[in-house]
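Hi Y.,

Following your request, here is the sequence exactly as I used it, all 447 residues.
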Amino acid sequence: MSKKIIRKISPMAQQAVDHYIEQSLLLNAAFANDKVIAGRQRAQAIFAEQAFPTLRDEDWKYTKLTGFVQNRFESLGKHSLNVDDLHAFLPPYAVTKIVFVDGWFSEELSDDLSVLPKGASFESTRDVFEVPGATDQLFGREDIINKTPFGALNSLLMADGYYLQISANTVLETPVFVLYIQSQGNQMATVRNHVMLEENAEMTLVEQFVSLSTDEDFKGCTNVVTEMDIAKSARMKQVLVQQQNHSSYYFNNQFIFQADQSTFNTFYTGLGSLISRHQNHLFMNGEHIENQQNSACLGRGQQTMDSRTNTEHNQVWGKSQQLHKYVLDDSAVGVFDGMIRVDRLAQKTDGQMDNKNLLLSTKAKVDCKPQLEIYADDVKCSHGSATGQINQDQIFYLQARGIPRSKAIKMITQSFLMEPAEGISNANIRQWVMTTLADQLNAKDSL
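Below is the corresponding structure, written out as tokens. Let me know if you'd prefer a different format.
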């Protein structure tokens, strides 16, 4: 009979675990829904056992959480803002606006969601909690979500989020824009979302994560879990822009489930936070599925930019494409981990993954781990990774045409980082993202 391995936890990590379990108990005392309470209790038991990952964990060996564990973020505080606080963050194109402040849905700052187009419905997760029969949709995949450390942490602290459903054959012409604002320091925003696209539905989802303060002492944390069900022939497009304060923390786990002939295109750009980790868990469970997962990350100072994908081809004729690029300066760290897994049933798979990284400093570094796991024999799959500095011949070429060296470096860097954003099909959103990237690149004169 084998003995159960007991995980060793440092006293500091144990204190952090106890703190968040206590926060979960306070949340349970505030919510009377038995299923929500039971869901948090299950997560408490899992989290108490697995705790926070360390550098000994293979999936976390390049992302140090010591600084995060030393903090004791609160999760019960609410704060109200006014409309003027939003102006700097709103995109310059028409959207349906949904606003969360410190993880709580703000009806006052959001658009009137009762007048969404026919076939589209929105509910806050907090409202779903109050309907016992409706909570089943939030607890169907705990076995998958709670395997991830911050998925379990999300489950034990989840308090709000959104449930967005697009009915069959409904096409949302206007993008849905979700703005997550950190307004208070020392707060953990725990958000649980669920997007459901029924057969032949289509929508574009834009999500932006920001902080009101840029002070170094302002530390916040955002921990998001989003489930997406993309039904047969449905089409989902997503853009995420992470611009939180450079002292904050960002963790986002997305679980995407695709059915026959559906498409899913997502783009993530990581610009803010001291430590950020964005991960897609993509399950291609039907035939003739297509998806694209691109990212562009810019790290400076002591930032750690961690972006990951886990793509499972489970049926025939699946096609997945990925392009991930990092630009790292100062002592920033980039982490990319991508897995394409091809089931034995997934013949005719076409899976392509590429990672390229540009280092602007001798102290910057990147750790890459592109992977293929193939059990079918009729596939076309590839993966690659390349890291280096700017080619001096390129700089010389531009200087020879009268362009100053500093400007030449900016031009080359910007051109390199913009490529993943070119996959955004909506011209207005693409231009907004590219402008955001350019502004961030130009914010430092030494580039």
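The chain has a mean pLDDT of 92.

Thanks again,
Q.
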